[in-house]
Amino acid sequence: MKPDIVLLERMMPPIEKALDAAYTVHYLPDMPSLEAIAPRVRAVVTGGGTGVPPDVMAALPELGLIAINGIGTDAVDLQAARRRNIHVTTTPGVLTDDVADMAIALLLAASRGIVRADRYVREGEWPKGAPIALGHRVSGRRMGIVGLGHVGRAIAHRAQAFGMQVAYNDVREIPDAGLAFHASLTDLARCSDILVVAAAGGAGSRGIVNEGVLDALGSAGLLINVARGSVVDESALVAALRDGRLGGAGLDVFAHEPDVPAALLAMDNVVLQPHRASATVETRQAMGEMVLGNLAAFHAGRPLLSAVV
Ligand code: 8YV
């Protein structure tokens, strides 16, 4: 008999096909209750942003594995997992480049007005000779990176190739980083034209990009977020953009996904993405294979491929 697993977030079709071949998959949003299957479920699969709601974790007494299709663990109660001897796995390494690419895509799109200009062409404004605002140069500008993990470093590498000056803030200085370190996030923002959020979500980073940081970035500054909406005080961000205290933003993540503040939808100095930084065929395939590998190892009693708990 195939083991039962609970799926909390859809995956790409070939991965779901492989899941279906090996497991009886219960897609949580389609289920009225977990009660009937709960005693048989030893593993759940979820996304980094979705995580596992506490009531779902509590409803599965035999749970032994939470396989995250992503690197963020902030939406899973890791302490509860440790207490209950539940393993938690992620998909490290394979999505770093795509997330860094998304940061650069948002940076270019917001700086050069790519989305606005696309609309200008589609809406027939070009032949009319309607005025369109100039963009801003990216090369030579100063980028501040919030969180210099794997993704932060990959963003730094790309920004340097664009001739940007890169500095960073993290909980502590990273000796071999080769980049200017600012112990204060406000100082980093003051010394940056563009602030890129690449820090892990969770209690330690909640709201660290606050009103003071946004004001330090200033009215010509640009905020890019490819990490977690929770790292930025979203109300302060909306207010700063509305009041012209911040120049623009490129956002892939939000505080209450999939809800995006209505005020942002009306701003054309803001570029919005629906949490898609790792959403390429190649990366989602590689992530899905890691999830499949972790599930198979767990059910066979072999060592897990990429356990964080
Ligand atoms: C994914 C993410 O979009 O890695 C993460 O933590 O949030 C993203 O890469 C997500 O995990 C898939 O839902």
UniProtKB/TrEMBL annotation:
<dbReference type="GO" id="GO:0051287">
    <property type="term" value="F:NAD binding"/>
</dbReference>
<dbReference type="GO" id="GO:0030267">
    <property type="term" value="F:glyoxylate reductase (NADPH) activity"/>
</dbReference>
<protein>
    <submittedName>
        <fullName>Glyoxylate/hydroxypyruvate reductase B</fullName>
        <ecNumber>1.1.1.79</ecNumber>
    </submittedName>
</protein>
<feature type="domain" description="D-isomer specific 2-hydroxyacid dehydrogenase catalytic">
    <location>
        <begin position="7"/>
        <end position="308"/>
    </location>
</feature>
<dbReference type="InterPro" id="IPR006140">
    <property type="entry name" value="D-isomer_DH_NAD-bd"/>
</dbReference>
<dbReference type="GO" id="GO:0005829">
    <property type="term" value="C:cytosol"/>
</dbReference>
<keyword id="KW-0560">Oxidoreductase</keyword>
<dbReference type="InterPro" id="IPR036291">
    <property type="entry name" value="NAD(P)-bd_dom_sf"/>
</dbReference>
<keyword id="KW-0521">NADP</keyword>
<keyword id="KW-0520">NAD</keyword>
<dbReference type="InterPro" id="IPR006139">
    <property type="entry name" value="D-isomer_2_OHA_DH_cat_dom"/>
</dbReference>
<feature type="domain" description="D-isomer specific 2-hydroxyacid dehydrogenase NAD-binding">
    <location>
        <begin position="104"/>
        <end position="277"/>
    </location>
</feature>
<comment type="similarity">
    <text>Belongs to the D-isomer specific 2-hydroxyacid dehydrogenase family.</text>
</comment>
<dbReference type="GO" id="GO:0016618">
    <property type="term" value="F:hydroxypyruvate reductase [NAD(P)H] activity"/>
</dbReference>
<dbReference type="InterPro" id="IPR050223">
    <property type="entry name" value="D-isomer_2-hydroxyacid_DH"/>
</dbReference>
<dbReference type="Pfam" id="PF02826">
    <property type="entry name" value="2-Hacid_dh_C"/>
</dbReference>
<dbReference type="Pfam" id="PF00389">
    <property type="entry name" value="2-Hacid_dh"/>
</dbReference>
<keyword id="KW-0670">Pyruvate</keyword>
